[in-house]
Write a structure and sequence with these properties.
Length: 241
Amino acid sequence: MLLILAHAGDRSARALADRWGSEALLLTASDLHQARWRLDVDRDGRVEAALATAQGAPVPVTGVVNRLAAVTAADLLRVRPEDREYAGAELTAFLLAWLDACPAPVLNPPNPKCFNGPAWYPEEWADAAASVGLRVDAVSRRLELPVVPPAPVPVWDDAVSVHVVGDVWIGDVHPVLGKRLCQLARLADTPLLTATVSGPGPRAKVRDISAWPDLADPEVADAVAAALRGSPADDVAVVAG
């Protein structure tokens, strides 16, 4: 069973679950506390992670698509209001440990600060992108009192969305740029990555980098399935450059 962890409003994750059908189980943040999660540590320090339905039936997890950042009080509307913040913190801590111990492939693997990668600010993504040779669009912030509306983001007429799944990129960009985006994904330890690209050739600029690719894209969905199976990228229909 392929496990998809996502927030309730994540339409991309729901599209992926619909595409995979009975092979996948979608659990939103509000569903998490109803499943039976197990995390066992033996005397030698070996860790075993397992999952069962609310009725107790075991769920053999063969791969995890992790779209959660954290579990907050706003995700737990079925919990008593006075307990939601505490329950969210406890569930976040437990799931970080469970995902870290999960023997199946996890995309994206957890980070101590976030379920889904390093939770970098735009400036940190830009710095990491520049370190692998990518040209990054300017990142700026402005704080004024009284608060004024932010300046509009320049429109890129030739913008292309590029999604990375491991060592495969989906998007019509120069191969050099695609490989550098894959290198960025490895640097950030986020096998699933997305960015907006503008400009011709390997010197195109990138912005809007995040760990949230569009899973509703059939090519991305097939690449994710192949990555979780450990299949070569050539086994899936992708546009890589």
